[in-house]
Specification:
The protein has 9 helices and 16 strands. By secondary structure, it is α/β, with parallel strands linked by helices.
Length: 340
């Protein structure tokens, strides 16, 4: 696994928009404020051509142009790390235009984003053997003040953190809007981590995963190199981190079923499941827990749920592709990264 160099003082942060950009409110104002803040911190910034564009369908621009922007930004020398402008709907259509061979041979560079950016953070690890960060997108850095999760994500990008932990409260309803673009997370709900399996838990393995909406869409395509990846690192075992956005309870269950029968979970050591956006919903007597635990029980590994991963903020930054050791006890989650 290749690990990029961390962002140094006075380094350059690049921004790309292979999914949505920051052309509309509240994202435009938040992005502009984030840029100002980075400049005040002593960093340079470099914007890709699509960052402030709104011409695409579910993404910033034409898929070919989005792919070209990512290729040039990643393989070029105008920036040191990359943060995606935002998530969206159809980054999958950009994948045919991303030059994974060129990226695999380029000097590795940290890429950070989540949600639709799973299409790159997941493939960077499984196709290019290059770690990426499943973490907040650009406009999150415009909030005032920064939530500790945002501080942790930036500290990780700078090499000033080597692990993460859960937070005390989470946000059920966001207060960010066109009128309040810099609003911080509105955290009101206490974190209650649920562990299916014996507790306390200590497990170690290589992290892989992302947003299930995207992962299940990749399953079985020419971009699905998961079997080769899991065989390549089989001695490490795997910690699958999973969360969902638009999937309802039944869709989550179908997604888990599909990944199981695609052979994705070979050599699994544990599952780290974030709160789904459909948190608290039920269908046909199945809740968010049984949507996954009924099917994952056969693997006889810990299934840790309601973690700070994904769309219900805050989110812990997760290094896709890295080795990690996880400890869980009494609603406390700690994960130490091992970059080898």
């Amino acid at each position: 696994m290749r690990y990029p160099e961390f962002l140094q003082e006075n380094g350059t942060i690049g921004f790309v928009a292979p999914s949505f950009g920051c052309a509309t409110e509240p994202y435009y104002t938040a992005f502009m404020h984030a840029l100002d803040r980075f400049h005040q911190m002593g960093y340079q910034t470099q914007l890709g051509e699509n960052c402030l564009v709104e011409k695409g369908i579910g993404i910033s621009n034409d898929p070919k142009l989005c792919g070209m922007e990512l290729n040039e930004s990643y393989c070029g020398t105008n920036n040191d790390v990359i943060i995606s402008c935002g998530g969206g709907e159809l980054m999958c259509e950009v994948l045919p235009y991303i030059d994974f061979g060129r990226i695999r041979n380029a000097k590795p560079k940290w890429y950070m984003g989540f949600s639709d950016n799973t299409n790159f953070t997941f493939l960077s690890a499984t196709v290019c053997d290059t770690a990426a960060i499943y973490g907040p997108c650009a406009s999150a850095f415009g909030m005032e003040p920064w939530h500790p999760a945002v501080e942790d994500a930036f500290a990780l990008l700078c090499g000033k953190r080597d692990g993460v932990h859960n937070y005390d409260l989470w946000e059920r309803e966001s207060s960010k809007s066109e009128e309040t673009p810099l609003a911080p997370y509105q955290v009101t709900e206490p974190v209650r981590i649920r562990c299916f399996g014996d507790e306390p838990v200590t497990i170690k393995g290589r992290l892989i995963g992302g947003c299930m909406d995207c992962l299940v869409n990749l399953t079985g395509t020419e971009f699905d190199h998961v079997k080769e990846f899991t065989e390549r690192y089989r001695e490490d075992g795997f910690l699958w981190f999973l969360e969902s956005c638009d999937l309802n309870i039944m869709s989550i269950r179908r997604a888990v079923w599909q990944m199981i029968h695609a052979g994705w979970f070979s050599h699994v050591k544990g599952f780290l499941i974030g709160r789904p956006l459909c948190f608290g919903e039920e269908a046909f007597g199945i809740d968010q827990y049984r949507a996954v635990t009924d099917l994952l029980a056969d693997f006889k590994v810990p299934v840790i749920m309601d973690l700070d991963i994904g769309h219900l903020s805050p989110m812990m930054p997760v290094i896709s592709g890295a080795l990690a050791e996880v400890r869980v006890q009494d609603h406390k989650f700690e994960m130490q990264y091992i970059l080898k």
